[in-house]
Give the backbone structure.
Amino acid sequence: MQTVETEISRTVIYLAKNAGPVQTLYYTPTHSSPLSETTIVSGAAGGINYSARKKKWTFLCYVCGQTNDFMSLAVDFELINLKYSGIESDMNFVTQFVADPKYSLPGRLYLKKSNFETAKLFENKIINTGDENNIIDFLKWAAEMFPAEHYLLSISGHGSGIISMDEQSIKDYRAPAYAVGYDDHSKDSLNLPELKRVCAAFNKETGKSKLDIFLFDACLMNMVEIACQLKDEVDYTVSSMKTVTGYGMDLALFADKFKKLSDKSPFQVGKAMVDAYIDSDTLDGGNTNLCLSDLSKTDEFISLIDELASAAIENIDMRNTTAVELMVKSINNSSSAYDDSAFYKQYVDIFDLMVCIKENFGPNQHLSKLADNIFNFRDKINVYNRSNAYYQYNRPVKGFSIFIPAADYWQRYQNQYKAIDFGLNTRWPELIDKLLSFKTN
């Protein structure tokens, strides 16, 4: 054992049996209570190779925002409830949090024997949760320190679907100011190209072809466009096309359901997450849904959507006024993420849109048949969906939204939209352009 002491800290390095070299750093100054960090280090020492024990799962929780923000307070509540769950026997749970500097340093915690141990603290450093390099650094570190057969990444914080309104997106796409993983101190967030690069970097680090589950503990993230962006890097997403209410994911209830699983495959773990959210008492009657989506089906799903977009564009180009009016009527009658808000009404339930198209065009029209193909694909990509949400016409939410903006929003967001994978590889942006142009003319 080796001990190194300085004016502000004491470092102890020793070997832990079956765990590897462990470094513990004790902080003593400027804080109301002692702080310490412990790092399990993989490698060789004394001719013996050490590494952390590989578990079935590692849960990677990336918490965004500040503690004076409700979302961070909600995560604090969930972490406290998770402490005594016993989930760590089969699942590593590790989180990177950004706290209000008045109370604590930003850092990384891991769950061990019903207690959160501090694995790393960041002194005199601002952690921008909207910077992709920070989340990549966290994920690479976690993959080395807490190896597992399967990985579940959760981003906990505000979300606004495909519209990333941070400073970098304003620069790159002339977009406005908000997004997923929004950091209210740094005024930054993670846009879709960044999320894809984050997942690709993590998969390269772990040697896996895809991340097993990506949980968006954030509003509005179950979208066709997001599935398209992540399909090559992620197997399953767990997310809502509506607002995430209450305290978000009930981690303690998820832990209870996880421990009871005889089959801890990604599919079953994803279902347990959906159940934990919808069954939670913390929803307090909130109008919401959560969906487990199989992204391996995304290419086929997008092909069907693109076929419908092409047919609709053909009607516009032929100046088929009746068909265009019926399409606009179908869009206006479709359920959205929140029907009483102009912003949320841009997030249209794609499966409900297909119902409206079939109703308005009639069963024998070409567009109706294409819409039927998309609707019938619902259970292939939306493999598990639970909802206590009902929209207009008393129709239940069906899981996926797609972006259909009004003219003023399209003017603001179209550069960003046309730069994501769905915008680059489908005719959907062209359909939006032509529908809005047709209505104007």
Notes: The radius of gyration is 23 Å. The CA atoms of residues 358 and 368 lie 5 Å apart. Residues 55-295 form a domain with the Rossmann fold fold (CATH 3.40.50.11970).
